[in-house]
User: Which sequence fits this backbone?
């Protein structure tokens, strides 16, 4: 395993192979990298109720000689990682473009980061798993879209696109009781498409759990193997959101979402063309389009 890999990359690569106890330890390393970097193994074990030997076994499972080596890499990564939006904003505004790489240089850095994230998505994608998720959404009685905070915009977009070809996709605004009560009608023939990135939405995580318990098939899009969405997902996809600015980059997330939507439309068959034409005609009748 390449030494240049980050701890996050190693965990993502091996996560499916880890035992439940090692996954718990891996989740803690992902969720609390600063604690791993600054606290002793004994303190970590005491606070987390994970035995010290479990952390040691995790280190070896990830390709490290021992836990001390894992901890040292965590220290190096923690020292170069800005952990809050505010701190990343400080670094962002401290850069003088005109005195460094020239005006507009940040746009190049942002674009390169997005391209890297998209490339990682394509290279790591299990196409059979993606096809299974599309099958699940296309065959569902009803599809419920769950997303809050930054995820809300993506789910609103997905609901709009889906409405052009189908009438059984519904965006749920969990902040409104009239919408969240729809979770009560979930049953095994339904599907849920949920999206949440760190910091994770409590509403989305809880709704996914409720959907899973009701027997609905859940497709989850998130950003880490430590994401709480994964515990109740039928199909899950982890997307890189690295960015040089203070906020995560969602370019790769959009590529995945657009791909899923396109695959679902293909599975709906050519009859959706008639609905698309009817929707377009109705929008024109309602004056939705600007036409000179």
Assistant:
């Amino acid at each position: 395993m390449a030494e240049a890999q980050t701890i996050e990359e190693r965990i993502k690569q091996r996560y499916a192979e880890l035992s439940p106890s090692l996954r718990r330890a891996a989740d803690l390393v992902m969720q609390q990298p600063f604690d791993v970097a600054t606290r002793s193994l004994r303190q970590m074990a005491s606070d987390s109720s994970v035995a010290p030997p479990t952390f040691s076994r995790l280190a070896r499972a990830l390709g490290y000689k021992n836990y001390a080596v894992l901890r040292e890499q965590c220290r190096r990564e923690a020292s170069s990682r800005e952990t809050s939006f505010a701190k990343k904003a400080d670094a962002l505004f401290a850069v003088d473009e005109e005195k460094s790489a020239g005006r507009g240089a940040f746009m190049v850095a942002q674009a390169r980061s997005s391209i890297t994230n998209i490339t990682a998505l394509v290279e790591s994608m299990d196409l059979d798993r993606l096809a299974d998720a599309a099958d699940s959404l296309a065959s569902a009685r009803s599809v419920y879209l769950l997303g809050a905070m930054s995820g809300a915009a993506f789910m609103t977009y997905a609901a709009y696109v889906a409405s052009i070809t189908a009438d059984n996709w519904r965006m749920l605004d969990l902040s409104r009781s009239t919408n969240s009560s729809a979770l009560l009608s979930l049953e095994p023939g339904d599907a849920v498409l949920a999206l949440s990135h760190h910091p994770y939405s409590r509403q989305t995580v809880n709704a996914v759990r409720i959907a899973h318990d009701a027997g609905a098939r859940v497709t989850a899009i998130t950003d880490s193997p430590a994401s709480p969405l994964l515990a109740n997902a039928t199909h899950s996809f982890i997307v890189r959101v690295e960015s040089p600015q203070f906020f995560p980059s969602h370019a790769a997330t959009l590529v995945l979402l657009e791909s899923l939507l396109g695959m679902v439309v293909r599975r709906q068959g050519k009859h959706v063309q008639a609905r698309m034409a009817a929707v377009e005609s109705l929008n024109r009748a309602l004056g939705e389009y600007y036409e000179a």
About this structure: The radius of gyration is 22 Å. The CA atoms of residues 88 and 94 lie 10 Å apart. Residues 105-124 form the longest helix (20 residues). The chain has 14 helices and five strands.
